[in-house]
Design a protein that fits this description.
By secondary structure, this protein is of the alpha+beta class. Helix content is 20%, strand content 34%.
Length: 214
């Protein structure tokens, strides 16, 4: 069972979209200009942004995708995937996919709210679901999909000094993107973009990262 949550998480939930929010158009459509056919619909997907309280502080759980994955192979990502017709909403889809990828029981996750929908170059409209995971929850990664499971301090990701804005040529154009270099790992692309959305939402609500220690 997930233990009682600290007060700052109530403030975090206020900064998020409600869990029953209707699916919006991706907030980053301008970034996808020229990357997808104009008439190509984006397929609905959902990921879990898993927050876990450890003795050393709050952590964000991330995965590294295997080289065999058809899209975003080898990249760092949140657990999640395509929303199935059997999923009643994005929250259910994120929890189901997290269970399939990492073996985390949905009952061990307390969803708090949603980030903005994020469009990807693989033609998905991804709804990020922020949730607290019971620190006692066990993981059993799906070896076909997941190469590595690791955690990054939430305080690191909320510190703008660790956030980089970089550029690279992609499909004939110079594109900007966000990145968090973290030791030997490089968190970028859609995952970094969703984390920036979390950071911006907290900024708008006057959240102080120092509150994490209270």
């Amino acid at each position: 069972m997930i233990e009682r949550l600290p007060v700052w998480l109530d403030r975090l939930a206020i900064a998020l979209r409600p869990l029953d929010s209707a699916t919006d158009a991706p907030s980053n459509l301008a970034e996808l200009d020229g990357l997808l056919p104009a008439d190509q619909p984006l397929r609905p997907a959902a990921v879990l942004v898993p927050l876990i309280r450890r003795a050393q502080g709050w952590q964000v759980l991330l995965t590294r995708r295997t080289a065999q994955m058809p899209t975003h192979a080898g990249q760092i990502s949140f657990p999640g995937g395509r929303i199935d017709a059997s999923d009643p909403d994005a929250v259910a889809g994120a929890l189901r996919e997290t269970h399939e990828e990492l073996g985390i029981d949905p009952a061990r996750v307390r969803p708090l709210g949603l980030l903005d929908v994020y469009g990807t170059i693989s033609a998905y409209a991804v709804t990020p679901v922020v949730g607290v995971v019971d620190p006692a929850a066990s993981t059993c990664p799906n070896e076909r999909e997941v190469d590595e499971v690791f955690e990054v301090p939430l305080s690191f990701l909320l510190d703008r000094r660790n956030l980089k804005r970089e550029e690279r040529h992609f499909r004939g154009r110079l594109r900007g993107y966000y990145a968090y270099p973290y030791g030997e790992r490089y968190i970028w692309g859609a995952t970094a973009g969703m984390l920036v959305n979390l950071l911006e939402r907290l900024d708008r609500h006057g959240f102080d990262p120092a509150d994490l220690d209270r």
